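Recall from the previous lesson that a structure prediction takes nothing but the amino acid sequence as input. Here we apply that procedure to Craniofacial development protein 2-like from Artemia franciscana. The sequence below is the only information supplied.
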Amino acid sequence: MDGSGLAGAGMIMTHKIASGLLDYEAVSDRIVMARLKCQSNNLTILSVYAPIRDAPDHLKDKFYADLRLTLNKIPRKDILMIGGDFNARIKRLDETKRF
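The prediction returns the following tokens.
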């Protein structure tokens, strides 16, 4: 993983919004963090792309460990926004099974 953020998560912002950018970090190919200057409190935005439920445990463990470390670095005063794909899988209910 090269830290480029090109394999899964990313952000797009206007030049006006980007002018208030305080910090940006491609934590991994699945987590990108941007911190923006706002009037009262700063805003931290996380864009995430979680591994699917069927992914190997080591990939899921790494993702959630990286997410936890990233969340711990965010100043408590910041407004936090998390968006992304948490990869829930929905299976079709087998017609022969009923609740």
